[in-house]
Amino acid sequence: MAILDIEILGSGILREKAAPVESVTDDLRRLVRDMTDTMYDAEGIGLAAPQVGVSQRILVVDVADEEETRHMHALVNPVIVEFGKKTEKASEGCLSIPGIEESVTRPATVVVEALTPNGDPVRIEADGLLARALQHEVDHLDGILFIDRLSPLKRSILLRKWRKSRSGNAR
Ligand code: NI
User: Fold this and answer.
1) How many whole angstroms from 134 Cα to the centroid of ligand 1?
2) How far is CA 71 from the centre of its chain?
3) Are the C-beta atoms of residues 24 and 74 closer than 8 Å to each other?
4) Is 137 a catalytic residue?
5) 12 CA to middle of ligand 1, Å?
């Protein structure tokens, strides 16, 4: 098991559009395992490859549904093929912006198509927290962070709080 370093807001790779994976290989499966270990170690519910310094379209999520059943997904080249019309507002955070949380409005349901790390096609119809986590992580693959989904005013307040917390850590 390997715990990878997580890129923090300000790192350029978080703002890049990640490249599609050309072929699933043992190296890719190792990366997925390391990303999963890293996500659990950081007590996150999702992690995208750019967050561990790899600009490729790979994500892992693990969230519990309303029956407390956990759903672990490792997705390669995920595409959101349908967004539900209904939206939902709920609190989000990000392992790349530790200590910051804010409510984000997103479509309540999505359908995602991807490949598993073994190269099999998979289609996920998600609602609730899983739908939110999938949208958050697919955003990472496009260089988008959840703070970009906020109003400019909310974002600037959060960024001020973020900078203050970081300068506090430096002392
Ligand atoms: Ni995130």
Assistant:
1) 10
2) 15
3) no
4) yes
5) 14
Q: Which residue has the tokens 């289609």?
A: 123
For ligand 1, a single-atom ion, the residues with CB < 5 A are 94
Q: Write out the E strands in 44-169.
A: 46-48, 58-64, 70-83, 87-92, 102-107, 109-115, 121-127
Joined together, the tokens standing for residue 171 give 């002392």
What is the sign, positive or negative, of the torsion defined by CA atoms of 74, 89, 7, 82?
A: positive
The string of pLDDT tens digits covering residues 48-85 is 999 999 999 999 999 987 778 888 999 999 999 999 99
Q: What is the pLDDT of residues 3-51, one digit of tens each?
A: 999 999 999 999 999 999 999 999 999 999 999 999 999 999 999 999 9
Distance from residue 171's CA to the centre of ligand 1 (Å): 26
Ligand 1 centroid, distance to 147 Cα (angstroms): 10
